[in-house]
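I would love for you to help me understand the pair of lines that follows before we discuss the fold together.
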Amino acid sequence: MALQGNVKVLVPCGSLGSGVRESEIEYGLAKGANVIATDAGSTDSGAAYLALGKSKNNRGAVKRDLGILLRAHAKTRIPIIVGTAGQAGGDLNVDWTRDILLELVQELGISPKIALLYSEQERASLKAFNRQGKVRPLPPLGPLEDATIDACEHIVGLMGVEPFVAALEAGADVVIGGRATDTAVLASFAIWKGAPWGASWHAGKIAECGAQCCLNPADGAGVLLTIDEGGFEVEPLSATNRCTPHSVSKHMLYENSDPHYLHEPGGILDVTGAAYTQLGERAVRVEGAKWVAQPYTMKLEGAAAGNYQTLMLIGIQDPDVLNNVNAFHDRLLDALYERTRKSIPAEELGEFHISLRMYGWNAVTGDVPVNVPPPREIGVLLVATAKTQELANAIAHACNPYFFHYPVVMNKELPSYGFAFSPADVPRGQVFEFKLNHVVAVEDPLSMVRMVWIDKHGKAIAA
């Protein structure tokens, strides 16, 4: 399909549920938006959301945002595209978003043609791909083992533009997609309409976080992309915000190790020749990006459930501690391990772990500060990790007296540190982690994606 004129993509926010602004949607519609496209998730908050099939976003917030978009669709008939639904894009996450959509459809009395794109993968299929040599690791991981696949609660493959294009080609009004690259969600409509792949992918990358590519990210939620044969333009949906060449170009650095190249399913976005030009006060024109086709691969994300944790938190202003935080940390940690081993039989204890996070000192980096003046106070977080929640709780109970009263100077009166809660121990639940950082080679971009069509009642229908 050859592009006719240009394509206008309304990106309402950085993530569905983060706060769509109705005035901005009205602005984008008035400017002639052809589609509304938004990401709805991320791996930023860890593996739990894929492993559990839940969203970190409030259900009411997602329903509010999606409702604003659906009313815009009802008014204009332009399609809505959502990717990485329900935070993680697994099947359960897609279904959670689907149910919200169906509630809204009934409340608004509309009947959009709905396509659901599922990108969760079956373990047997991935093992077969692995045996065929189609799976390769990304640094720092090594070859994929079947045991790693079996350990995962859910595994998703990151979709490119092709499944979204297929849904649009079949007439979808609303597309709720599973795990996809943020960029693909925003680039898909323009590519379907015949826009250059380089400009479309580059525009999608710049706008993936909504107003984050603007001069003042807090002033507004979304942006409007105008993609044509020569490149694209980006402007804020907020009338009081503006884009600059710097605010736009710097977004190539966001979550990307190389500001010139972006690896996506089926190719590499090359922006080494991109030029950013100010248009008036508020918009930026971008030209020069190229799309370099590559053998098609889909990145795999797999989330596994692990051990259980219990937390305790104290605040310390004791000058004896603050004058030698490093020594206090080491001595207290040794004492906690010793007390735990004395309090709980070894055959019951099994493998366990205790860590102390010294907030205000080195909790973020773990690096031991050198030649740094004593802090005014520190917060100390104890994390007990064990094979069951009951055992993690028992470790915390064993550690409790030492954790709250352990002195840095042994012959002085025992201190009492400030505990944050009573009871002091807080069961955190199970620990989740990502186990896969691999890509799988596929000949057909749609082969690992299931497309399901439903009516306004949620019943499966033919496309």
